[in-house]
Specification:
Elements (H helix, E strand, L loop, with lengths): L8 E2 L6 E2 L5 E7 L2 E7 L1 H17 L24 H10 L12 H10 L2
Antiparallel strand pairs: 1-2, 3-4
Length: 115
């Protein structure tokens, strides 16, 4: 037996069923809290008209695609060949894993030995 699931988009304001490609999904924020609402074109126009005076008087802050949590900064690309450091470390009696961070003292010893 086959199962068919059909998703329908419904105008969140008046309950009207929207045809595929019809209406708008609108995201907005008030007091630091973000909301999303599906509206028909008619209700979307009303929404934008109602907010227009406030948007015109307000000041934009940040980007609309701001993340809720700050993104972690990417680490700077090292000029060191980590595989070469691992090979040197093993050949000189140090224990290092095949992946991940190499301990600072081992990197410093490698630099001193290869300066």
């Amino acid at each position: 037996m086959a199962t068919r699931q059909i998703a329908q988009v419904i105008d969140d304001l008046d309950g009207t069923t929207l045809d595929e490609g019809e209406g708008q999904q609108i995201t907005f924020s008030i007091e630091g809290r973000s909301y999303e609402i599906d509206l028909s074109e008619k209700n979307a126009e009303k929404f934008y008209a109602a907010f227009a005076p406030y948007v015109d008087a307000g000041r934009p802050i940040g980007s609309p695609s701001r993340r809720a949590t700050p993104a972690r900064a990417a680490r700077a690309k090292s000029d060191l060949d980590l595989n070469a450091i691992r090979e040197w470390a093993r050949a000189n009696g140090h224990t290092v894993s095949d992946r991940g961070r190499i301990a600072g003292p081992i990197v410093e010893a490698y630099k001193a030995a290869n300066a």
